[in-house]
Amino acid sequence: AELKKASKRLSCHKRYKIQKKIREHHRKVRKEAKKRGRKKPKKDPGVPGAAPFREELLREAEQRKQRLEELKQKQKLNRQKEQEKKRKLEAKKNAAKIKEKAEEKESSGKSKAKTNKLPDKTSKKSFCMELRKVIDASDVVLEVLDARDPMGCRCPQLEQAVTCSGGDKKLLLVLNKIDLVPKENLEKWLNYLKKEFPTVAFKSATLMKDKTMEQFRKRRARVDLSRTTECFGSKCLLKLLHEHGKTQNKAIQVGIVGFPNVGKSSIINSLKGVRACNVGLTRGVTKSMQIVHIDKQTKMLDSPGIIADPSNNALALALRSIIDTEESGSAEVLEGVDAILNHCSKQQVMLHYSIPDFRNTEEFLTLLAQKRGMLKKGGVPDIENIAKVLLCDWTGAKISYHSQPPGSQRPPPYLTEDKIAEMQECFNLKNLEDENNATVQALKYPSPANSIIFQSAGMTNGTIGENKVIEEASEWEDLEKSKEGEEDDDEDFTETDDDQDDVEEEEMDVQEVNHLALALASLTHDFLFSESEPSNSLSFSLDKTADEDDAYDFNTDYV
Question: Phi/psi at 411 (nearest 5 deg)?
């Protein structure tokens, strides 16, 4: 938008001041002119009458004047011609710009269809494509599980795709964030999972060495960062991968897959010892495949998170969906928080957050917002933002909670005994068990009293194929197209019918309408004129019991 010109309006004081200054200046100029004295311009005396050749001189003077006038006219014409040329050039340029804009609009309209087909970097289709690339390119696939809910982090579609892919592709389970669960619970899960796939206990480093670390140490020398950069289970995992590489006699590619916020990128950073991949609390930080060389024999492939299928329950979607909490709606976030609270022990939640007893999720969030000081204007608790913070805490590494493994070992249908044996074939399971025991003994764990008991919802279904992922926009387009197609089919059908069938249908419709009109008239008559006998439906909907009338909600404020 073009900027408007500044206004020329002045205040009266300023205008009068300027006028006074001008008057003073003119007075000064007149005074100086008086002092100097006026010098009139000398008139041209002309040619004296007694001069010889006077007529010739006058003719020459007239000719000179004519030449000067002709020169002035020629210069004027030349100037006009140049201005016309400039105008024509400008007009041509403007016409060319208008044509270019029109062509750009047409090309953009055509290219929109092509660009819609191409997936966005942040779209679900692109995530699926990148995940599929990682699975196809890798010799060993590491499925990262959160130790707090390992069963909820398992994706049956992924496991089936890897186990049934053929070849020598192997699948390993990496149990990450083991420092957030009690020791007994961790041992139970390791014993349960190792019967299906080789499982590695892992605790990734929370703060990696990078360029900013040196400055941080210089500024705050007292801060001890040795504990935050500790990593457990990396030697065991690298040893397993090297052993598999020796059997293959080649450098292997290891793909790291899993649901969002389970710690895929942090595992790569821990193995490399440097912050090679971006890490964050927000979901979907990794958007494409990233290749990180650990050493000459192993190459790690980082992947975006698995997309949770919309058919999953509310708990699975709240904890495992790739949608960021900042972008998602308040209703989705509140449903997720409600599902989490329903699957936890209420007393433990109250103790952890040091909050009094609550009746529902909204009351819990209001109490938590008041405690943490998250208030809107007028002291109203900010429920939406506190719900987002709570979801981030549960998916991040802040809260310690644990779920119990199933009582009986029931492997999924795609995991037969032959497949389990095939997955455990090239690995030394005894050494793996010893290394896991060593990592379990080396760590400090929260006590069972401080860890919240959590009821897992089972495996989470995910979408791996590109064709299975349907974006919201494409769904609406398909619905509109289907509606248009149905309307066209109806029109074609009515056109092809015989005239006799049309007449019969019209007669039937008229009879039905008449019956409905009679029924409505009788109902309205009964409703208006039956004062003594009110209808049962109205009494059912309007009457209230005495208990309901007496009940008063003390949480509501009346103005």
Answer: -70, 150
- For 164-218, give the DSSP string: TS-TT-EEEEEEE-GGGS-HHHHHHHHHHHTTTS-EEE-B--SS---HHHHHHHH
Host domain of residue 290? 124-208+226-310+404-446
Q: How far apart are CA 133 and CA 125, in angstroms?
A: 12
Q: H/E element holding 383?
A: helix 383-395
What is the C-alpha separation between 216 and 225, in angstroms, rounded?
A: 10
Please tell me the distance from the alpha carbon of residue 60 to that of residue 326, in angstroms, as a whole number: 92
Separation CA 426–CA 518 (nearest Å): 82
**What CATH number has the domain bearing residue 254?**
3.40.50.300
How far is the first Cα of the chain from the last one, in angstroms, to the nearest whole number? 47
Query: In angstroms, rounded to a whole number, what is the distance separating the alpha carbons of residues 181 and 204?
Result: 14
Count CB neighbours of 235 within 10 A. 13
Model confidence band, residue 21 (pLDDT cutoffs 50, 70, 90): very high
Q: What is the pTM of this model?
A: 0.59
Q: Are residues 260 and 397 in the same domain?
A: no
List pLDDT tens digits, range 271-303. 887 777 767 656 656 767 778 888 888 888 888
Q: Is 467 left (phi over 0), alpha (psi -120 to 50) or beta?
A: alpha
Instruction: Please indicate whether residue 216 or residue 401 has the higher confidence score (pLDDT).
Output: 401
Q: How many helices (H) and strands (E) would you count in the chain? A: 20, 10
CB within 8 Å of 361: residues ≥ 6 apart: 334, 337, 338, 341
Q: Give CA angle at 234 (269, 414), nearest 5°.
A: 95
In single-letter form, the type of residue at position 495 comes to E
Count of structural domains within the chain = 2
Q: What ranges in 221-360 are assigned the alpha helix state H? A: 234-248, 264-272, 314-320, 330-342, 346-353
Q: Environment class of residue 289 by beta-carbon count within 10 Å: exposed (0-12), middle (13-18) or buried (19+)?
A: middle
Among 469, 333, 473, 459, CA closest to 392: 333
Tell me: do 383 and 410 sit in the same domain: no
Cα–Cα distance, 277 to 261 (Å, whole number): 14
Instruction: Give CA–CA dist 369/386, Å, rounded.
Output: 6
Angstrom distance (rounded) from CA 305 to CA 463: 11
- What's phi and psi for 484, nearest 5 deg? -60, -40
Residues 155 and 244 placed together within one structural domain of the fold: yes
Summarize the confidence of residues 360-372 as an average pLDDT. 90
Whether residue 187 sits in one domain with residue 136: yes
For the chain, what's the residue count? Answer: 559
In a domain, 111, yes or no: no
Q: What is the rounded CA–CA span in Å between residue 255 and residue 263?
A: 13
CA distance 375 to 378: 8
Q: Facing residues of 292 across strands?
A: 300
